[in-house]
Design brief:
Shape: globular
Low-confidence stretches: none
Number of helices: 12
Order of helices and strands: HEHEHHHHHHHEEHHH
Distance between the termini: 54 Å
Largest sheet: 2 strands, parallel
Length: 313
Amino acid sequence: PVDPAGLINYVEKHFPDHEVNCCYEAGCCGYWIARALQQHHWKVSVVNPADVPRNNKQDWQKTDKLDSRNLCKHLSDGNLKGIFIPGEEQEQLRSLFRRRIHLARQLRTIKNHIKSQLLYYGIKLPEQFDNPNWSRLMKQWLASISWKYSCGSASLQSRLKHLEFLWYEELHISNELRAYCRKHYKKDYYLLKSVPGIGGITASGILAELGDLRRFNRLDELAAIVGLVPGIYQSSDNKINLGLTKRSNHQLRSLLVEATWVAVRTDMALQQYYRQHAHKEPNKAIIKVAHKLLSRIRAVIISGVPYQLGVIK
């Protein structure tokens, strides 16, 4: 059965006094199984499914039994490297942060639906309201649109109610997220906020997704987790840059890139660095600046000193 207690009882019955080393693939079950097994002093590894060596045969013959045997073989051969197992507190903080990301995505979607309905019926949006930030005046204007038939009005009113719910829910979750980090991660939270471009949500996201940055011995390790490293394909003399690696923390990488665009407008050193690479495509240049911003983020956490303009390079 898919139950750590059942596995523990089986091992204690058939293999008493044995040292146990086990692993499983990261997925929908999270890390509670790993923590349950670790309480019995088992050595537990959670591995990225993409890191498990497989042969072509397994593409055509795949069962849970075969996958388990494959994992055991590579674990005994020392071919598997486990990923970081967060604590229960960080894991639940991560859930709160990802809920906020999900709400923000839904909020963008419902705004697009409303604008699509206006476009469909040829209703022109006033120029002063044509921006991503929807003011209360804009919502009042939307609610005051007169429709020839009640069906159109009911459709728009339903979307406006959905918009209002999502707006308040995102605001509530954002406040909860920032308040929790200010209370339980106060030192690191304010160290992160001292870096140009890093606001409360981004600081909370870094703490939720990465935890304690002091565990990264090198910047390259941190950049690889976030996904700010290039994908490269080289064969003989042919070398192809595949862009950013697909292995990344998509939510955090997106937030850091947004924070970088803010930082280059407030930090002259980063702005100068961006201009040095301005001959490249803007989207490629900003990634290089984001990598430097990530270096500054790690530096303030390790040093414990708030960032000061012109001091940390």
